[in-house]
Specification:
Rossmann fold; globular; binds S-adenosylmethionine; single chain; alpha/beta
Length: about 230
């Protein structure tokens, strides 16, 4: 199993009401932080946004109020998380601004449900930490054709610094909101990556990788950007 999100008991856990904990808790803070970040990057209400690994709409529940109606899209591996987010985390007014058909469950980054819709900005927050490297490359390759020519994809990841032996576990400093240390690995979830790893994933794709760095994430995740190349 690449990550706990592939486990069959995820469904029962979501149905028992644990969807907020399953996607990492810190509900209000991390939802707001993602919206603030995207706005700082120039995302406007008229942009069409794709939230990759959107889970139970921690960010989506903030984004639907900011974006024009029907401008938010999300995919996730778990239909149950999408249902929990849509049915339990949105108000009636927010559901009017977000058709349920904009949320799609897929294990293979299948964006064909978009039909002719093209995406201005995409975000994968705390998703690469749960993906093996070949899945990241797969995600980049599948996302590229549905982006607009000036599209940008932002993704958070756990950075393995140059001085660290990649095969050794990496202990990240705990912060104010997260008292337990976060430990990442190269061959198991949660995964860490070097900058060269992400650059390699983008090689021979339409994407150009750029490291943006720290953005204040409580579990020390860094921010990467992938730009569509001319
Ligand atoms: C830590 S949660 C983050 C959720 C959301 N991005 C947020 O910040 O609230 C990771 C999410 O990635 C999803 N995920 C994991 N592997 C995936 C895959 N291969 N394809 C799509 N989604 C995936 C999980 O189901 C989960 O919702």
């Amino acid at each position: 199993m690449p990550s706990p999100y592939y486990e069959t008991d995820l469904k029962e856990k979501v149905l028992s009401g644990s969807h907020r904990e399953l996607i990492g808790g810190l509900w209000d803070k991390m939802g707001r932080m993602q919206l603030d970040f995207m706005r700082d990057q120039g995302v406007q209400p008229h942009h069409v946004l794709m939230d990759i690994g959107c889970g139970a709409l921690r960010f989506g529940s903030q984004a639907v109020d900011y974006l024009n109606p029907s401008h938010y899209y999300g995919i996730d591996i778990s239909e149950e998380l999408l249902d929990a987010g849509y049915n339990k985390e949105l108000t009636d007014r927010q559901r009017e601004r977000l058709p349920r058909s904009h949320l799609h469950a897929t294990e293979s980054f299948d964006f064909s449900y978009l039909n002719d819709q093209r995406i201005d900005r995409a975000l994968a927050q705390s998703v690469f930490t749960h993906l093996p490297m070949n899945h990241i490359r797969h995600c980049l390759i599948k996302l590229a054709p549905v982006m607009k020519p000036d599209g940008v994809f932002y993704a958070t990841f756990s950075l393995c610094p140059d001085h660290h032996n990649i095969t050794e576990k990496l202990i990240h400093p705990s912060g104010e909101e997260v008292s337990v240390e976060v430990i990442t690995y190269d061959i198991r979830d949660p995964y860490h990556y070097t900058l060269e790893d992400l650059e390699y994933c983008a090689k021979d794709t339409p994407w150009k990788f750029q490291y943006l760095g720290d953005w204040g994430h409580p579990r020390n995740l860094k921010m990467a950007a992938f730009f569509m190349q001319d």
